Amino acid sequence: MSKDWNKRTAAVHGGTRRSQYGELSEAIFLTQGFAYDSAEAAEARFIETGEDEYIYARYGNPTVRMFEERIAAIEGAEDAFATASGMAAVSGTLLSMLKAGDHVVSSKALFGSCLYVLENVLGKFGVEVTFVDGADNAAWDAAIRSDTKAVFFESVANPTLEIVDIRTVCELAHKVGALVVVDNVFASPVFSDAIAQGADVVVYSATKHIDGQGRVLGGIVLGTEEFIRGTFEPFNKHIGASLSPFNAWVMLKGLETLSLRVNAQCDTATALANRLDGHTKVARVLFPGLESHAQHELAKTQMKRPGTVVSIDLAGGQAAAFSFINALRIIKISNNLGDAKSIITHPATTTHQRLTEEQRQALGITRGLVRISAGIEDTDDLLADVAQALDAV
Prior knowledge:
Layout: H1 7-13, H2 39-47, H3 62-75, E1 79-83, H4 86-97, E2 103-107, H5 112-124, E3 128-132, H6 137-143, E4 148-154, H7 166-175, E5 179-183, H8 188-191, E6 201-205, E7 219-223, H9 225-239, H10 245-276, E8 282-286, H11 296-302, E9 309-314, H12 317-327, E10 332-333, E11 343-345, H13 357-363, E12 369-373, H14 379-391
Parallel strand pairs: 2-3, 2-4, 4-5, 5-6, 10-11
Antiparallel strand pairs: 1-7, 6-7, 8-9, 9-12, 11-12
């Protein structure tokens, strides 16, 4: 594989391994174990595995390795390790690098499960976590201490689409030797270059844009070879949150069309945001591509395009939000995102329902807020669907 390839080419050809049959589509090595030619060969492999040598699917698999190498090429990372889900990637990354007494600084605008891991799981094991306003660089500067071990944030927050200044936060963290972990799922590997902007570790829920068709769960952790092989792999292969070879194959197929899909989705998200902005029944539209977005200028410098998700706040609160959601004909109600099908969810009663009302208000998650993940349907059809649903409110 050439290092000069652009992302779209790497997404089609990166990491490909072919058997003696020369198959064009990647092979699924649907096996959990591997045979050895001799007892001596088994002994040698357990001491040190060579290139394309495997022991057990929990440790590695040829199909999974193709996925890891391909997405590492797209992301510009030295190495990657695939996991059973996006949350396995997030929790495994943090747990593999932290111990009791360590200090973490995190943005407070996070997906509900991420908040649970930081507040409950890490706290249970004696890790101190300080939460800050992710958009406030001064807050990061004040919270990061000389003993801070890690910094964690979503580059684009769920569901309010708040953007963290990756370069600045990385500079602040690196001054004290802290590792920066970025959950980059909303930006996607196509629109973001978080590692080039200073991130040490990038995690994705591959369930979202990478699969992109609502089929399977998966996650990926990307970083330096030292971190992936020296810190994350020893933890994850014993914990057992490994990616199925079949799911890895589905992800490989998803990567082939990733750029085409997310660019089409971004076109539609932009059209929806522009059409909804200023509507009498909409109190606010949250989309990095709008000049009204608080971090619009940062988004232009940090992301190639503003993304595939639009959040809108219905002026009539939860009753209006539910009326709007229930009146939609094309856009489906679900809590996923990045799918080929357009999806809508009401965060206050679904993904962020475990938060207190005070916490939700502090994050800007009102009862009227809905999150729309643009799909690849015809843009005019989606605009018409949204228009008739607003008429029903």
